[in-house]
Amino acid sequence: MSYVASRLSAVKPSASMAASQAAKALRAKGVDVIDLGLGEPDFPTPRHIIDAAHFAAKAGQTLYTAAAGTAEIREAVAGKFRRENGLNYTADDIVVANGAKQIIFNALMATLEGGDEAILPAPYFVSYPEMVKLLGGTPVVIECPETTGFRLTPELLEKTITPSTKWLFLNMPGNPSGAVYSQSDLKALGAVLARHPQVLVLSDEIYEHILFDGREFVSFGKACPELKDRTLIVNGVSKSYAMTGWRVGYAAGPAPLVKAMSTIQSQSCTSVCSIAQAATVAALNGPQDEVARFRQAFEARRNLVVDGIRKINGLTLSPPEGAFYAYIGCASLIGRKTPKGVVLEDDAAVANYLLNEARVASVPGVAYGLSPYFRISTATGEEVLAEAISRINAAVAQVE
Ligand SMILES: Cc1ncc(COP(=O)(O)O)c(C=O)c1O
User: Fold this and answer.
1) How many A from CA of 206 to the centre of ligand 1?
2) CB distance 372 to ligand 1 below 6 Å
3) Domain named Aminotransferase class I/classII large: which ranges (predicted)?
């Protein structure tokens, strides 16, 4: 007897969660593993946000809310888009879900018909292709090499769009590459999209506050206002406010799409936790100094990792422009032998070698659609990162 529907046959579990599980399994056996697999800030959620949650719970905000989110949270999100991104949305254009992941899932469920294609510039966030497949669409991957800054170019986009293209996914700063698109990069992509009116754009801007070297964030919505009626801006509090466990994401887009997403939500999870929504209002409307402090810490860690990795013979790393990952090139290790005589055939073998020999958990580039690389998360303390780099160095030095 088969318990599982056929639509699950091609869907893989999250690679970053799998890396983390492998690290935990080794730890359970007493092995001292540094887990750089999962991407979540190691800071506590700022105090005033936690206080707002306490207050909401004590004040009786403990009931189901509107499926799209409370009036307060949708106003707070509209205010955030106005203030931080120069975008005008009303509460009707906004929907809240259990994380940006659920937002993306709902958007795809609301729109994909069998045979629809979603263009995914690689390296991409691991969940994008799996969600597309799960919901009956076809992921169409465009490899965006390091030589173009891991960014999608207008030429590649133009070549890849077909009459079946339903979505283009953009993610900036990008997970895993940290790539950021400038206003002119986005306008050039927008010019291509203007010629293909069937294509919707999903701009995942969840790392917008984690930007380095003085860069300013430009939302896709700001760069291409002419595409507003086919753009869904996705964001959330997980990364900016160290709130991964609170599970709040949000999106702004065309009202009919947002309404369909909220209908799906009303029939699946009813609403996001009322207390987490109240906490998010405090996050968005309250003081932003912790966000700035987190950003600074992430930049210092980025610098430490870039310096350390670039000194390792056999690895390469372009400085990430944002987010909290390092996407490390390992082309020159491929085909070489470990001290145990195992040939490193691909980046999955490299990540496996690093886990077993360096006792550092990372995620192989194959999970992100662009090889040979492996990703480490830099959302951990500087001492731990320095120790991880020294272990990686020692392990790489032993490859023959
Ligand atoms: C690009 C990207 N989008 C979305 C998410 C998910 O965010 P959330 O915690 O809001 O579901 C992640 C988390 O790793 C991510 O890297």
Assistant:
1) 7
2) no
3) 32-392
Which amino acid is residue 200, in one-letter code? Answer: L
Given this model, what pLDDT does residue 22 score? 83
Predicted TM-score of the model (pTM) = 0.96
Q: Is 206 in the pocket of ligand 1 (CB under 6 A)?
A: yes
Q: Is the CB of 204 under 6 A from ligand 1?
A: yes
Domain boundaries, the chain: 6-44+290-397, 58-286
Q: 6-44+290-397: what fold?
A: Aspartate Aminotransferase, domain 1 (3.90.1150)
Written as one letter, the residue type at 243 is M
H helices present in 86-137, as ranges: 99-111, 127-134
Over the stretch 315-330, which tens digit does the pLDDT of each residue have? 999 999 999 999 999 9
Alpha-carbon gap, residue 248 to 9, rounded angstroms: 29
Handedness of CA 274, 275, 280, 282 (dihedral sign): positive
d(CA 333, CA 315): 8
How would you classify the pairing of strands 360-361 and 34-35? parallel
Q: Does ligand 1 lie within 6 Å of residue 125's CB atom?
A: yes
